[in-house]
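Chapter summary example.
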Amino acid sequence: MPTGRNRDEHPQKTVPGVVTEAGDVPRTVRGRPARRRDHTVPPWLFVVPALVVYAVVVLYPSLAGVMYAFTDWSGIGGFSFTGTDNFRALLDDGRALESVTNTLLLTVAVVVVQNGIGLLLALGVHTNIKSRAVLRLIFFAPAVVSPVMVAILWKYVYNPENGAGLNGLLGAVGLGGLRQDWLGNPSLALWSVAAMVVWQYAGYSMVVFLAGLQGVPAELHEAARIDGAGSWQRFRYVTWPLLAPALTINLMLSTIGGLKLFDQVYAATNGGPGTSSETLSTVLYKEAFVYGKFGYSTAVALVLALFVAAVSLVQLRYLRAREVTA
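The structure predicted for these 326 residues follows.
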């Protein structure tokens, strides 16, 4: 009689398509590789809703605006193509050309003063003073206020009456001779708006510089101090080169913001007195919604967009090169 054998000595037969005791799935089913059903949704499907919204809200209006720049569209009804007539009219428009000069002057003033004050504030609150947290909050608070509200607030500050606002403060400290009609004087209106913008966003620049300062290793300052470097030398040769990324961010943001500045100018001066504080943004707004020249206004908007893009790209390339050499 055959003797009993262990069960393990008989290899277990596998049936195609059936899971074995060891949990293995046969590699073949009727001579073909087994296929597993994958019910995973393709990742790109999750992007489709956002792309649709972006196309409707951003892409279509942008492309339509480029088309309308070559038409005589009035905002209502039909239109006809006029070629480059709108751009030729822009070159002959003295008010638009003056607004370009105002925009550049306003941008330079805002970029230089805002970032200079922001850097000083960042250095001041990057110390061990007990009130540094409160000071950071106070300096940053104006940046989260609506630009229109800031403009309305500063219109009270710039009240031309002798006993009100800034004029009242100057009279109280014995500087009454410096009283001015800050928003009504054509030679001061643009710079008054620039001061308003700097006051609002200097704290924002401070936060960016502060983040850069906190990224500077303390060991470098300690080593420079041991080598006999003073405060200015440590800032010049240790801190300033390492602030290059923060400087790039601040200069880019303030430049773009200055070139397309609209809210504060329109709410405070409406481009006046006359055209002394007119910017490209206020010109294109008035051409569209005051004079009904939507075709011309989109041409101005297209020129502004291309100008901002060109300045930003040149600035970014220069600043990125500085980050490498710093």
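To summarize the output: Strands lie at 28-29, 32-33.
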